[in-house]
Write a structure and sequence with these properties.
Blueprint: E1 4-9, H1 19-30, E2 34-39, H2 42-51, E3 58-59, E4 62-63, H3 67-91, E5 96-100, E6 107-111, H4 114-117, E7 121-126, H5 128-136, E8 140-144, E9 146-148, E10 154-156, H6 159-169, E11 174-179, E12 185-186, E13 189-190, E14 193-195, H7 196-204, H8 212-222, E15 229-234, E16 240-241, E17 244-245, E18 248-251, H9 253-258, E19 273-277, E20 280-283, E21 288-291, H10 294-297, H11 306-316, H12 329-340, E22 346-350, H13 353-368, E23 372-376, H14 385-390, H15 394-397, E24 407-410, H16 415-421, E25 426-431, E26 434-435, E27 441-442, H17 445-458, E28 461-465, E29 489-492, E30 503-507, H18 528-541, H19 544-565, E31 571-577, E32 580-585, H20 592-598, E33 601-602, E34 604-605, E35 610-613, H21 621-643
Parallel strand pairs: 1-2, 1-11, 2-8, 5-8, 11-15, 14-18, 21-33, 23-24, 23-25, 25-28, 28-29
Antiparallel strand pairs: 3-4, 6-7, 9-10, 12-13, 15-18, 16-17, 19-20, 20-21, 22-30, 26-27, 29-30, 31-32, 32-35, 34-35
Bound molecules: adenosine-5'-diphosphate (ADP), N-acetyl-L-glutamyl 5-phosphate (X2W) and pyridoxal-5'-phosphate.
Adenosine-5'-diphosphate binds near residues 10, 179 and 210.
């Protein structure tokens, strides 16, 4: 694939472009690069408005645009500046084609704030296919930053913003802002490299001001997985020689590393976290999000809860790790808290949900002397060989066979199927009280009752996987406590350590003699730092008042969501238990998720059609209201955009 470079040519330098600007473009083009130009023209527009005695003012670096101003903006940008630039490029033998963002709906726009800014637009979509077609024919598109909406209303778009949006849409490998200075200047010298953090500091210190602010903001917004860096260079002096660019390079430090040495096992969001506290996550661009992911049901007390932080810090000052050859008081204390708040009697500590389930499955086979394990379709139990074999989703185990023998996946909530499969060969039945990853699907009370009854009848062990549903998530210490059942084994992880990795398998007293010394173990299991975090976490979450509030907030949230989303055909069902909530939609939600993030709320999926909401349990009612508002507004926006 050819490398594409998007070059934004600033109004400040248009009349002052040095021959080196054009020879640099020639060199890039001749080396086989695709070149796209987006131009500004602020000073020219200003001059014309003055000549016509039309008043205009800048609000946050953007020109307030009345109908009258808009006419002048379009006339200058698309009518004059664009054509002049195209003509100049052609003089240098470069095949430039002038287009405005209106042509072929290249820049689809929406108003930023009609009242405050008039017809100033933000880019909601770019016709990247059209740009790609021009590039395939080796043309150099020269784009004026005018956009339109579906009704044909035109908008004045800041040229830096337009260039950033185009670069992102066509997955350009390089974005250059050509302006009248040789980069970001500090004390007269060019800052060669600037990270997002450094830029924030320079704005706060008053080093970056005026027209440089929208430029650096557009640069930061454009950084993505395909665009690791953006440059600010001068149009008055050579900026490109022997494949080398001169100016300021802006990069998201971590973004640069994203393509580095990690196996790409995750479909990561383009959000790089800088800090997190309570219910708020802040990214490296300074954007704040209300976090309804909670590290996937992990940070149940919000981020960096002070009591947990204090407990961890204190333990850090005592000792970090000694091994399970020693007596560790904190393990005893956390185990006490777990058994006091469940029907279990003994605890085995490990480091993750999968390991907790692995321990449960090993215990079940060893205790019963049987092999067969029944689990359910759409379940998720982990990614080790045993837990992958237990998981009822093909996408998890496909390609890893042969799996462990004698794992059977039955339809969820199907009593008949269970009755048919149960026998004296079954070692265990393992079930999630609410299937989390599989789509936020609660188990029926009668179904759970039947599992308990049949396990007793056939001497099989009843395992509940509470990795996601446990630790207060549903308003009880463990979700099975909503029902009149007593499992033999409960597994826990995720929320147990508030973000410090820890898992636990809790079993009934009669299982004690099966897990004796040397039968099972883990180097890190029950690590003192993890235990300190777990103790502080459970001491708060297992308080009856705290759990009561979780239940109330869960009921409130579910009711508010059901009420607010009932008008949308897209939404099929809103369901959940406590603060584990799913919104099932009639179609894939892949597009909706980033749009909700963009509007400041972090949510995740559970399967292709379900939006999963996992607010921290400390969430306030106002924050729940805010989340409902954002979700509703985003569905509306996406629906409107799709109708265009
Ligand atoms: N730290 C900085 N380094 C360089 N230029 C800066 C800085 N802070 C503010 N500026 C101003 O930003 C201007 C470039 O922005 P602008 O005039 O909007 O250019 P353009 O028309 O190319 O978009 C520079 O001419 C300079 O006056
Ligand atoms: C909304 C807004 O402010 N639009 C700009 C468009 C031109 C532009 O951005 O030109 P520069 O590159 O010279 O800054 C304006 O009216 O001036
Ligand atoms: C119900 C359930 N079980 C097990 C696991 C696996 O936990 P871990 O990723 O900590 O191994 C998960 C993780 O999402 C889960 O939701």
């Amino acid at each position: 694939m050819e490398k594409t470079v998007v070059i934004k040519c600033g109004g400040s330098v248009l009349s002052d472009l040095s021959p080196s600007f054009f020879t640099s473009l020639q060199a890039m083009y001749e080396q086989g690069m695709n070149v796209v130009l987006v131009h500004g023209g602020g000073p020219e527009i200003g001059k014309m408005l003055e000549r016509l005695h039309v008043h205009s003012e800048f609000v946050n670096g953007l020109r307030k645009t009345t109908k009258e101003v808009l006419e002048v903006v379009e006339m200058i940008l698309a009518g004059k500046v664009n054509k002049q630039l195209v003509a100049l490029l052609q003089q240098y033998g470069l095949p430039a084609v002038g287009v405005s963002g209106v042509d072929a709906c290249l820049l689809q726009a929406a108003p930023i704030d009609l009242e405050k800014l008039g017809y100033v637009g933000k880019v909601v979509n770019v016709n990247g296919v059209f740009v790609d077609k021009l590039l395939q024919s080796r043309y150099i598109p020269v784009i004026s930053p005018i956009g339109t909406d579906k009704d044909g209303q035109k908008y004045n778009i800041n040229a830096d913003t337009a260039a950033g949006a185009v670069a992102k849409a066509i997955k350009a490998a390089q974005l250059l802002f050509v302006t009248d200075v040789p980069g970001i200047l500090r004390d007269g010298a060019v800052v060669e490299q600037a990270t997002i953090d450094a830029i924030e500091r320079m704005i706060n210190e008053g080093v970056i001001t005026g027209g440089m602010i929208p430029k650096v903001k557009a640069a930061i917004a454009a950084l993505s997985e395909s665009l690791h860096e953006v440059m600010i260079v001068s149009g008055k002096a050579p900026f490109y020689e022997n494949g080398q660019l001169y100016g300021t390079t802006i990069r998201n430090e971590v973004g640069g590393l994203l393509m580095g040495a990690l196996f790409p096992t995750y479909n990561r969001w383009n959000i790089c976290v800088k800090s997190a506290e309570g219910t708020t996550v802040t990214d490296t661009n300074g954007k704040q999000y209300l976090d309804f992911v909670s590290g996937i049901a992990v940070c149940n007390l919000g981020h960096r809860h002070p009591a947990v932080q204090k407990a961890i810090e204190e333990q850090l000052n005592r000792f970090w790790h000694v091994s399970n050859l020693f007596t560790i008081e904190l393990q005893e204390e956390v185990a006490e808290l777990l058994v006091a708040n469940s029907c279990g009697d003994y605890v085995f500590f490990c480091n993750s949900g999968a390991e907790a389930n692995e321990a449960a499955l090993k215990l079940a086979r060893k205790h019963t002397g049987r092999h067969k394990v029944i689990t359910f379709r759409q379940s998720f139990h982990g990614r080790t060989f045993a837990t992958m074999s237990a998981t009822g989703q093909e996408k998890v185990y496909k390609g890893f066979g042969p799996l462990l023998p004698e794992f059977v996946h039955l339809p969820f909530n199907d009593i008949k199927a269970l009755e048919n499969e149960m026998s004296e060969d079954v070692a265990a039945v393992m079930v999630e009280i609410v299937q989390g990853e599989g789509g936020v699907r609660p188990a029926d009370a009668a179904f759970l009752q039947k599992i308990a009854e049949l396990c007793k009848q056939y001497g099989a062990l009843f395992i509940v996987d509470e990795v996601q549903t446990g630790i207060g998530r549903t308003g009880k210490p463990f979700a099975y406590q909503h029902f009149a059942i007593e499992p033999d084994i409960i597994t826990s992880a995720k929320g147990l350590g508030s973000g410090i990795p820890v898992g636990a398998m809790i079993g009934k007293a009669f299982l004690k003699d099966t897990f004796t010394a040397g039968v099972h173990g883990s180097t890190f299991g029950g690590n003192p730092i993890a235990m300190a975090a777990a103790k502080a976490t459970l001491q708060i979450i297992f308080q009856p008042d705290f759990l009561q509030e979780v239940q109330e907030k869960g009921d409130y949230f579910l009711a508010r969501l059901q009420e607010a989303l009932s008008e949308f055909k897209l939404v099929k069902e809103v369901r959940g238990l406590g603060l584990l909530v799913g919104i099932e939609c009639g179609e894939d939600v892949a597009k909706l998720i980033p749009a909700i993030h963009e509007n400041g709320l972090l949510v995740l999926t559970a399967g292709p059609n379900v939006i999963r909401l996992l607010p921290p349990l400390i969430v306030s009612k106002e924050e729940l209201d805010q989340a409902v508002k954002v979700i509703k507004q985003t569905i509306q926006e996406v629906k409107t955009a799709a109708a265009k």
